[in-house]
Specification:
Strand order of the largest sheet: 3-2-1-4-5-6
Structural class: alpha/beta
Number of domains: 2
CATH architecture of the largest domain: 3-Layer(aba) Sandwich
CATH class of the largest domain: Alpha Beta
CATH superfamily of the largest domain: 5'-nuclease
Order of helices and strands: EHHEHHEHEEEHHHHHHHHH
Largest sheet: 6 strands, mixed
Number of helices: 14
Distance between the termini: 20 Å
Number of strands: 6
Length: 296
């Protein structure tokens, strides 16, 4: 099993849940850094993975999706400078802890995780995706696991419809139909979540929906009689959205197999970072315990 961690979920979770009066010697907040370090340390002590990577988002504005649709994620406020600084520190900590850290200006963390999932699949190694972002469930096969660590727990392939309404391979199509307000993807106007679920239950895929517009009136949902015309009117919007909601699995990651195995932590680099951030002994002791695991 390989473990692929969506860093942003846990950095943001710490930033918004931990006291913002946690500061370094210069008064800079370190709450996101502290919470992320504790999460990653707890994860490594609990799981002791043989293969693990952490994926970060490098930029909201340079993703290849922005070149397709300039309004992609344009509804999001830029991260405040104190959070950007902490993201950089979290990447430093990840590398110092001996864990593969990856980011790319064109590909988002989801795409990096997708690329590593496919790498593992070629080696017949299943993946556990550590996140709470439903978009990533589209990557699951029956051998894989979606794990909301410190949250709702683990979900396997067969449990995804009960939680998200559709099967993993339908998630991208579902988002293309219903839209995704979080990422500013409009989808098909007038098609909400229930209608998108009904369409995919009946036709299996977005492609089949559009191949059978003359049969859409058969779908058991409100407004089915006029739904086919609505879908035809907004065909281009649906197809554009589908290019945005699908996860790319061909990001440029050089020789991932050589770095997926965790290495012994660099305690000197960790202590230097913690000195800068005015972080006390508890996390330092945890890093030492993790280093000791490599000696056993």
């Amino acid at each position: 099993m390989q473990y692929l961690i969506d860093a942003s979920v846990y950095v943001f979770r710490a930033y918004y849940s931990m006291p913002d009066d946690m500061v370094d010697g210069d008064g800079n907040p370190v709450n996101a850094l502290y919470g992320y370090c504790r999460f990653l340390g707890d994860f490594l002590e609990q799981v002791r993975p043989d293969h693990v990577a952490v994926a970060f988002d490098e930029s909201l504005t340079t993703s290849f999706r922005t070149s397709i649709y300039p309004a992609y994620k344009a509804n999001r406020e830029p991260a405040p400078e104190e959070l950007k600084r902490q993201f950089a520190q979290c990447r430093r900590f990840t590398a110092a802890l001996g864990i593969m850290s990856c980011a790319d200006p064109l590909y988002e963390a989801d795409d990096l995780i997708g690329t590593l999932v496919m790498h593992g699949r070629r080696l017949e190694r299943p993946s556990t995706i550590v996140s709470r972002d439903k978009d990533l469930t589209q990557l699951l096969s029956k051998a894989d696991v979606f794990w909301d660590f410190a949250g709702k727990g683990k979900l396997q392939y067969d449990a995804i419809p009960d939680s998200f309404g559709v099967w993993p391979e339908q998630i991208a199509d579902f988002l293309a139909l219903a839209g995704d307000s979080v990422d500013n993807i409009p989808g098909v106007p007038g098609v909400g979540k229930k209608t998108a679920e009904a369409l995919l239950k009946h036709f299996d895929s977005l492609e089949n929906v559009y191949a059978n517009l003359d049969r859409v009136h058969e779908v058991n949902c409100r407004g089915a009689k006029t739904l086919g015309a609505k879908l035809e009117q907004h065909r281009d919007a649906a197809m554009l959205a589908r290019r945005l909601t699908g996860i790319a699995c061909d990001a440029p990651i050089d020789d991932p197999e050589s770095v997926l195995a965790p290495r012994r932590p660099d305690l000197g680099a960790i202590n230097a970072l913690f000195d800068e951030a005015n972080i006390g002994p508890a996390l330092r002791r945890q890093a030492e315990r993790i280093a000791d695991l490599h000696a056993t």
